[in-house]
Amino acid sequence: MQEYKEYEELTKEELILKVQSLDRLNKELLLTFQKSERLEFGWTGNLGQWFWDFTTNEVTFNPLKAEAIGYMKKDLPEKVSYEFFTDKVHPDDKNEVMQLMTNHLKGEIPVWEVKYRIQAKDGSWKVYRDRGKVTERDENGRPLFLTGIVFDVTQEEFEREQLVVKNKSLTTQMKRDTLTSLYTRSAIIVELVKQANRAKEQKQPMSVIVLNVDNYAKIEEHFGIMLSEGVLKATGEVIKASIKERYVAGRYRDSVFLIILENTAEEEAGIVAESIKQTVLETIFDIPKHVSISAGVSAYYPDETISELIQRSAQKLVAAQKNGGNQVVL
Length: 330
What we know:
CATH topology of the largest domain: Beta-Lactamase
Distance between the termini: 99 Å
CATH class of the largest domain: Alpha Beta
CATH superfamily of the largest domain: PAS domain
Shape: elongated
Strand content: 15-25%
Number of domains: 2
Radius of gyration: 34 Å
Number of helices: 10
Structural class: alpha+beta
Low-confidence stretches: 1-5, 37-43
Protein backbone atom coordinates (compact mmCIF):
# COMPACT_ATOMS: atom_id res chain seq x y z
CA MET A 1 0.00 0.00 0.00
CA GLN A 2 2.86 2.36 0.78
CA GLU A 3 4.23 1.92 -2.74
CA TYR A 4 0.84 2.87 -4.26
CA LYS A 5 0.69 6.02 -2.10
CA GLU A 6 4.10 7.07 -3.38
CA TYR A 7 2.92 6.75 -6.95
CA GLU A 8 -0.28 8.66 -6.17
CA GLU A 9 1.80 11.60 -5.00
CA LEU A 10 3.57 11.83 -8.35
CA THR A 11 2.41 14.20 -11.08
CA LYS A 12 1.29 12.76 -14.35
CA GLU A 13 4.56 13.72 -16.04
CA GLU A 14 6.62 12.21 -13.22
CA LEU A 15 4.56 9.04 -13.31
CA ILE A 16 5.07 8.68 -17.06
CA LEU A 17 8.82 9.21 -16.64
CA LYS A 18 8.96 6.62 -13.85
CA VAL A 19 7.03 4.04 -15.86
CA GLN A 20 9.23 4.59 -18.90
CA SER A 21 12.35 4.21 -16.77
CA LEU A 22 11.11 0.96 -15.22
CA ASP A 23 10.08 -0.32 -18.61
CA ARG A 24 13.54 0.28 -20.05
CA LEU A 25 15.20 -1.36 -17.06
CA ASN A 26 12.97 -4.44 -17.21
CA LYS A 27 13.55 -4.78 -20.93
CA GLU A 28 17.32 -4.58 -20.53
CA LEU A 29 17.30 -7.05 -17.63
CA LEU A 30 15.41 -9.56 -19.74
CA LEU A 31 17.73 -9.14 -22.72
CA THR A 32 20.79 -9.42 -20.50
CA PHE A 33 19.51 -12.64 -18.94
CA GLN A 34 18.88 -14.14 -22.36
CA LYS A 35 22.35 -13.20 -23.61
CA SER A 36 24.33 -13.81 -20.41
CA GLU A 37 25.88 -17.08 -21.54
CA ARG A 38 27.04 -15.52 -24.77
CA LEU A 39 28.57 -12.27 -23.52
CA GLU A 40 32.05 -11.78 -24.86
CA PHE A 41 33.74 -11.06 -21.54
CA GLY A 42 36.34 -12.91 -19.50
CA TRP A 43 34.72 -13.73 -16.16
CA THR A 44 37.72 -13.58 -13.81
CA GLY A 45 37.02 -10.83 -11.28
CA ASN A 46 33.53 -10.29 -12.62
CA LEU A 47 31.51 -7.91 -10.40
CA GLY A 48 28.38 -8.17 -12.46
CA GLN A 49 26.45 -5.89 -14.73
CA TRP A 50 25.20 -2.35 -14.29
CA PHE A 51 22.35 -0.39 -15.83
CA TRP A 52 22.21 3.37 -16.06
CA ASP A 53 18.99 5.19 -16.82
CA PHE A 54 20.39 8.36 -18.29
CA THR A 55 17.15 10.31 -18.02
CA THR A 56 16.95 9.87 -14.24
CA ASN A 57 20.69 9.39 -13.61
CA GLU A 58 19.93 6.26 -11.60
CA VAL A 59 22.29 3.31 -11.64
CA THR A 60 21.18 -0.25 -10.94
CA PHE A 61 24.04 -2.68 -10.37
CA ASN A 62 25.15 -5.95 -8.88
CA PRO A 63 25.95 -5.29 -5.19
CA LEU A 64 29.38 -6.82 -5.76
CA LYS A 65 30.45 -3.64 -7.56
CA ALA A 66 30.01 -1.60 -4.39
CA GLU A 67 30.98 -4.34 -1.94
CA ALA A 68 34.37 -4.74 -3.65
CA ILE A 69 35.23 -1.21 -2.52
CA GLY A 70 33.78 -1.69 0.94
CA TYR A 71 30.22 -0.33 0.58
CA MET A 72 27.44 -2.53 1.88
CA LYS A 73 23.79 -1.96 1.09
CA LYS A 74 23.32 0.11 4.26
CA ASP A 75 26.12 2.47 3.10
CA LEU A 76 24.44 3.25 -0.21
CA PRO A 77 22.05 6.11 -0.84
CA GLU A 78 18.47 5.23 -1.73
CA LYS A 79 19.12 6.37 -5.26
CA VAL A 80 22.61 5.65 -6.56
CA SER A 81 23.68 8.10 -9.23
CA TYR A 82 26.50 7.66 -11.70
CA GLU A 83 28.55 10.17 -9.68
CA PHE A 84 28.60 7.80 -6.71
CA PHE A 85 31.27 5.83 -8.54
CA THR A 86 32.92 8.48 -10.72
CA ASP A 87 33.60 10.68 -7.69
CA LYS A 88 35.77 7.86 -6.33
CA VAL A 89 37.89 7.49 -9.46
CA HIS A 90 41.57 8.32 -9.00
CA PRO A 91 42.28 11.98 -9.97
CA ASP A 92 44.95 10.86 -12.45
CA ASP A 93 42.46 8.59 -14.23
CA LYS A 94 39.29 10.67 -14.06
CA ASN A 95 39.84 12.88 -17.11
CA GLU A 96 40.36 9.86 -19.35
CA VAL A 97 37.35 8.06 -17.87
CA MET A 98 35.02 11.03 -18.32
CA GLN A 99 36.34 11.84 -21.80
CA LEU A 100 35.75 8.31 -23.03
CA MET A 101 32.26 8.30 -21.53
CA THR A 102 31.47 11.66 -23.16
CA ASN A 103 32.75 10.43 -26.52
CA HIS A 104 30.54 7.35 -26.30
CA LEU A 105 27.47 9.29 -25.19
CA LYS A 106 27.95 11.52 -28.25
CA GLY A 107 28.16 8.43 -30.46
CA GLU A 108 31.78 9.10 -31.42
CA ILE A 109 32.97 5.65 -30.27
CA PRO A 110 30.89 2.44 -30.37
CA VAL A 111 31.71 1.19 -26.86
CA TRP A 112 32.91 2.77 -23.66
CA GLU A 113 35.76 0.68 -22.27
CA VAL A 114 38.28 1.86 -19.71
CA LYS A 115 40.48 0.74 -16.83
CA TYR A 116 40.75 2.99 -13.80
CA ARG A 117 41.66 3.11 -10.14
CA ILE A 118 38.80 3.59 -7.72
CA GLN A 119 39.09 4.38 -4.03
CA ALA A 120 37.61 1.96 -1.52
CA LYS A 121 35.87 3.03 1.67
CA ASP A 122 39.03 2.31 3.70
CA GLY A 123 41.12 4.61 1.49
CA SER A 124 42.86 1.87 -0.48
CA TRP A 125 42.72 1.68 -4.27
CA LYS A 126 41.17 -1.00 -6.44
CA VAL A 127 41.50 -1.33 -10.19
CA TYR A 128 38.30 -1.74 -12.20
CA ARG A 129 37.87 -2.51 -15.87
CA ASP A 130 34.53 -1.14 -17.08
CA ARG A 131 32.77 -1.74 -20.37
CA GLY A 132 29.45 -0.23 -21.33
CA LYS A 133 27.27 0.84 -24.21
CA VAL A 134 24.25 3.02 -24.92
CA THR A 135 21.48 0.56 -25.75
CA GLU A 136 18.68 3.07 -26.33
CA ARG A 137 18.58 6.59 -27.73
CA ASP A 138 15.72 8.96 -28.46
CA GLU A 139 14.75 10.16 -31.92
CA ASN A 140 17.40 12.89 -31.70
CA GLY A 141 20.17 10.45 -30.79
CA ARG A 142 20.32 11.46 -27.15
CA PRO A 143 21.15 8.54 -24.81
CA LEU A 144 18.32 7.08 -22.74
CA PHE A 145 19.79 3.90 -21.32
CA LEU A 146 23.18 2.27 -20.91
CA THR A 147 24.22 -1.19 -19.84
CA GLY A 148 27.62 -2.60 -19.04
CA ILE A 149 29.77 -4.90 -16.99
CA VAL A 150 32.60 -4.29 -14.56
CA PHE A 151 35.55 -6.39 -13.41
CA ASP A 152 37.85 -6.08 -10.42
CA VAL A 153 41.31 -6.50 -11.96
CA THR A 154 43.29 -5.33 -8.92
CA GLN A 155 45.11 -8.63 -8.46
CA GLU A 156 45.75 -8.91 -12.18
CA GLU A 157 47.28 -5.41 -12.22
CA PHE A 158 49.39 -6.19 -9.16
CA GLU A 159 50.75 -9.33 -10.79
CA ARG A 160 51.39 -7.42 -14.02
CA GLU A 161 53.32 -4.72 -12.15
CA GLN A 162 55.33 -7.38 -10.32
CA LEU A 163 56.15 -8.99 -13.66
CA VAL A 164 57.26 -5.62 -15.05
CA VAL A 165 59.54 -5.13 -12.03
CA LYS A 166 60.97 -8.63 -12.42
CA ASN A 167 61.52 -8.15 -16.15
CA LYS A 168 63.18 -4.80 -15.53
CA SER A 169 65.41 -6.38 -12.91
CA LEU A 170 66.27 -9.24 -15.25
CA THR A 171 67.02 -6.80 -18.07
CA THR A 172 69.28 -4.81 -15.75
CA GLN A 173 71.06 -7.99 -14.67
CA MET A 174 71.62 -8.96 -18.30
CA LYS A 175 73.22 -5.56 -18.91
CA ARG A 176 75.58 -5.85 -15.94
CA ASP A 177 78.93 -7.60 -15.89
CA THR A 178 78.69 -10.10 -13.03
CA LEU A 179 82.24 -9.44 -11.85
CA THR A 180 82.42 -5.63 -11.85
CA SER A 181 78.71 -4.64 -11.87
CA LEU A 182 79.52 -2.26 -14.74
CA TYR A 183 77.86 -2.63 -18.15
CA THR A 184 78.63 -5.71 -20.22
CA ARG A 185 80.45 -5.29 -23.53
CA SER A 186 77.24 -5.42 -25.58
CA ALA A 187 75.41 -3.04 -23.24
CA ILE A 188 78.19 -0.43 -23.21
CA ILE A 189 78.42 -0.52 -27.02
CA VAL A 190 74.66 0.02 -27.30
CA GLU A 191 74.97 2.95 -24.89
CA LEU A 192 77.89 4.35 -26.88
CA VAL A 193 75.87 4.29 -30.10
CA LYS A 194 72.93 6.03 -28.39
CA GLN A 195 75.10 8.74 -26.86
CA ALA A 196 77.05 9.28 -30.08
CA ASN A 197 73.81 9.81 -32.00
CA ARG A 198 72.61 12.21 -29.33
CA ALA A 199 75.90 14.12 -29.41
CA LYS A 200 75.65 14.41 -33.18
CA GLU A 201 72.02 15.59 -33.12
CA GLN A 202 72.50 18.07 -30.29
CA LYS A 203 75.98 19.16 -31.45
CA GLN A 204 77.45 18.45 -28.02
CA PRO A 205 80.88 17.04 -27.20
CA MET A 206 81.38 13.45 -26.15
CA SER A 207 84.55 11.59 -25.20
CA VAL A 208 85.55 8.06 -24.36
CA ILE A 209 88.20 6.53 -22.14
CA VAL A 210 89.59 3.09 -22.91
CA LEU A 211 91.66 1.86 -19.97
CA ASN A 212 93.42 -1.35 -19.10
CA VAL A 213 95.03 -2.83 -16.01
CA ASP A 214 98.77 -2.82 -16.66
CA ASN A 215 100.43 -6.23 -16.94
CA TYR A 216 97.19 -8.03 -16.11
CA ALA A 217 98.34 -11.27 -17.77
CA LYS A 218 101.32 -11.41 -15.39
CA ILE A 219 99.06 -10.67 -12.39
CA GLU A 220 96.83 -13.57 -13.39
CA GLU A 221 99.85 -15.83 -13.94
CA HIS A 222 101.45 -15.02 -10.59
CA PHE A 223 98.38 -14.80 -8.34
CA GLY A 224 95.78 -16.99 -10.01
CA ILE A 225 92.31 -16.35 -11.36
CA MET A 226 90.55 -15.61 -8.07
CA LEU A 227 92.94 -12.87 -6.90
CA SER A 228 93.37 -11.42 -10.39
CA GLU A 229 89.59 -11.18 -10.81
CA GLY A 230 89.55 -9.42 -7.44
CA VAL A 231 91.79 -6.79 -9.02
CA LEU A 232 89.28 -6.29 -11.84
CA LYS A 233 86.40 -6.07 -9.39
CA ALA A 234 88.20 -3.45 -7.28
CA THR A 235 89.18 -1.50 -10.41
CA GLY A 236 85.54 -1.51 -11.46
CA GLU A 237 84.58 -0.10 -8.05
CA VAL A 238 87.14 2.70 -8.46
CA ILE A 239 85.72 3.54 -11.87
CA LYS A 240 82.16 3.53 -10.55
CA ALA A 241 83.06 5.80 -7.64
CA SER A 242 84.95 8.18 -9.94
CA ILE A 243 82.24 8.66 -12.54
CA LYS A 244 79.31 8.51 -10.09
CA GLU A 245 75.98 9.05 -11.90
CA ARG A 246 77.37 11.46 -14.47
CA TYR A 247 78.96 8.97 -16.87
CA VAL A 248 78.57 5.30 -17.79
CA ALA A 249 81.20 2.59 -17.93
CA GLY A 250 81.48 -1.04 -18.93
CA ARG A 251 83.89 -3.92 -19.06
CA TYR A 252 84.83 -4.01 -22.72
CA ARG A 253 86.82 -7.25 -22.59
CA ASP A 254 89.04 -9.07 -20.10
CA SER A 255 90.88 -6.28 -18.22
CA VAL A 256 89.85 -3.48 -20.60
CA PHE A 257 87.21 -0.95 -19.55
CA LEU A 258 85.32 1.62 -21.61
CA ILE A 259 83.94 4.84 -20.15
CA ILE A 260 81.55 7.14 -22.06
CA LEU A 261 81.60 10.79 -21.04
CA GLU A 262 78.54 12.59 -22.40
CA ASN A 263 78.74 16.35 -22.98
CA THR A 264 82.43 16.25 -22.06
CA ALA A 265 85.41 17.53 -24.06
CA GLU A 266 88.62 15.55 -24.44
CA GLU A 267 90.58 17.65 -21.94
CA GLU A 268 87.99 17.16 -19.19
CA ALA A 269 87.84 13.44 -19.98
CA GLY A 270 91.61 13.35 -19.57
CA ILE A 271 91.26 14.79 -16.08
CA VAL A 272 88.77 12.03 -15.19
CA ALA A 273 91.16 9.39 -16.54
CA GLU A 274 94.07 10.84 -14.53
CA SER A 275 91.94 10.76 -11.39
CA ILE A 276 91.06 7.09 -11.93
CA LYS A 277 94.72 6.26 -12.63
CA GLN A 278 95.85 7.91 -9.41
CA THR A 279 93.11 6.31 -7.31
CA VAL A 280 93.95 2.83 -8.63
CA LEU A 281 97.63 3.42 -7.85
CA GLU A 282 96.75 4.35 -4.26
CA THR A 283 94.30 1.47 -3.76
CA ILE A 284 95.38 -1.48 -1.65
CA PHE A 285 94.49 -4.68 -3.50
CA ASP A 286 94.42 -8.25 -2.19
CA ILE A 287 97.73 -8.99 -3.85
CA PRO A 288 101.21 -7.98 -2.59
CA LYS A 289 101.80 -5.69 -5.54
CA HIS A 290 100.91 -2.18 -6.66
CA VAL A 291 98.36 -2.11 -9.47
CA SER A 292 98.31 0.57 -12.14
CA ILE A 293 96.23 1.34 -15.20
CA SER A 294 96.86 3.04 -18.53
CA ALA A 295 94.29 4.86 -20.61
CA GLY A 296 93.63 6.32 -24.02
CA VAL A 297 91.25 9.28 -24.26
CA SER A 298 89.51 10.48 -27.42
CA ALA A 299 86.82 12.98 -28.35
CA TYR A 300 84.07 11.78 -30.66
CA TYR A 301 84.01 13.22 -34.18
CA PRO A 302 80.53 13.16 -35.77
CA ASP A 303 81.96 12.04 -39.13
CA GLU A 304 83.59 8.88 -37.74
CA THR A 305 82.16 5.47 -36.92
CA ILE A 306 81.99 3.99 -33.43
CA SER A 307 84.62 1.44 -34.43
CA GLU A 308 86.97 4.20 -35.51
CA LEU A 309 86.44 6.03 -32.22
CA ILE A 310 87.25 2.94 -30.17
CA GLN A 311 90.21 2.12 -32.40
CA ARG A 312 91.72 5.60 -31.94
CA SER A 313 91.37 5.33 -28.18
CA ALA A 314 92.79 1.80 -28.13
CA GLN A 315 95.85 2.93 -30.09
CA LYS A 316 96.49 5.64 -27.49
CA LEU A 317 96.11 3.01 -24.76
CA VAL A 318 98.69 0.80 -26.45
CA ALA A 319 101.07 3.77 -26.74
CA ALA A 320 100.65 4.48 -23.00
CA GLN A 321 101.46 0.88 -22.08
CA LYS A 322 104.46 0.73 -24.41
CA ASN A 323 105.79 3.80 -22.64
CA GLY A 324 105.86 1.87 -19.35
CA GLY A 325 102.22 2.05 -18.27
CA ASN A 326 100.56 4.08 -15.54
CA GLN A 327 99.89 6.77 -18.13
CA VAL A 328 97.04 8.61 -19.81
CA VAL A 329 97.40 9.53 -23.49
CA LEU A 330 95.10 12.09 -25.16
